[in-house]
Design a protein that fits this description.
It is a single chain. The chain is of the alpha+beta class and 191 residues long. It contains four helices and eight strands. It has helices at 7-19, 77-84, 100-109, 157-164, and strands spanning 27-37, 42-51, 54-63, 69-71, 89-92, 118-128, 143-154, 184-190. Strands 1, 2, 3, 4, 5, 6, 7 and 8 form an eight-stranded antiparallel beta sheet that branches. The termini are far apart.
């Protein structure tokens, strides 16, 4: 089966992440994490928290050749996300591994490092500040939104075609939207 195109889902997640790089009136509480494993020498780690009025943000760049770590502004996630968005093919992982590092390792174990995939992991737990009591769900129900997804970026369509036929190709989503209890984007429910 051909790889599914998840570019629109990635762009939506990136827009949400960009809005979460500072305090926001749109949310009562949020916690998020993003990890970008590039095909080059640097990887990026970001996270943010809002709990009532207390906020915390973190951005870090790691040089994978020598282990040097440096701080980067959290808002730079938009820049690095846009860089990931330059991949011609953006699909998603739908396999048994539970961390983006393990997924990247699974790619290398399958001998597909020549495909030079990039990985962009997004995990968000958001509690919206909207008052949806008119929905008949009790006094002041709050809308919750969760995302837990690993995007896989490939430079060109030829590489994507090769990946489809490889052993690791079976670990990519074949449906859109993806049906998984482990991997999902923008799942909404009331608490």
């Amino acid at each position: 089966m051909p790889l599914q195109n998840y570019r629109d889902t990635f762009i939506s997640c990136l827009a949400t992440l960009k809005s979460l790089t500072s305090a926001s009136d749109e949310y009562v509480r949020f916690r998020w994490q993003a990890i970008y494993l590039t095909r080059d020498r640097f990887s990026y780690f970001f996270r943010g928290d809002l709990d009532g009025v207390k906020t915390s943000f973190f951005g870090q760049q790691m040089d994978v050749t020598n282990g040097a770590i440096s701080s980067v502004p959290t808002r730079s996630i938009a820049l690095y996300g846009a860089t990931f968005g330059l991949n011609e093919t953006i699909t998603v992982y739908d396999g048994p591994q539970r961390s983006v590092i393990d997924v990247a390792h699974a790619f290398s174990e399958e001998g597909v490092e020549d495909y030079q995939a990039e990985f962009f992991y997004v995990k968000m737990s958001l509690l919206h500040a909207t008052d949806d009591s008119r929905a008949g769900l009790g006094d002041d129900p709050l809308l919750r939104e969760n995302t837990n997804i690993i995007f896989v970026g490939l430079e060109d369509r030829a590489t994507a075609d090769l990946l489809e036929g490889s052993g690791v190709g079976r670990l990519m989503a074949t449906d859109k939207p993806m049906v998984s209890s482990d991997w999902y984007a923008e799942r909404y429910y009331y608490r």
